Amino acid sequence: EKLRARTVTILTQATGLGRPACEAVLEEAGGDLKVALVMSLAGTDPTAARTALTAADGVVRTAVQSLSAPTPSSPSRREP
C-alpha cells in the first residue's frame, strides 16, 4: 500500500493530474508506473504505451516523444 501511494504521488507530480485520475490510470496500466506515465503524457492506451516503451528501451521520455511525433500524413509544417 505504501509503495502504491508513492507511485500515485510520483504520477501526480509528473503529469499534473489529480490523485483520483492518477489512481485510475495506474489501475488501467496494471500498476506499472512507466506505462501509466506514457499513457498520461501521450494520451494513449496501455497497449500502445507498452509498445512504445519497448521500442524506447524503457525510456519514458523517448516513448512519449515517439507517440507525440507527427506522422507522415500530418506534417508539422506547411509546404511552400
From TrEMBL:
<protein>
    <submittedName>
        <fullName>N-acetylmuramic acid 6-phosphate etherase</fullName>
    </submittedName>
</protein>
